[in-house]
Amino acid sequence: MLAQYVYSAKIGLFRIVQHGRRWRSLLEAQEIDRHDSAESALTALRDLWPHARLPDQLDHWRHLPALALLHSRPADEPVIRWQLVM
Question: Where does the source fall among the domains of life (predicted)?
Answer without folding.
Answer: Bacteria
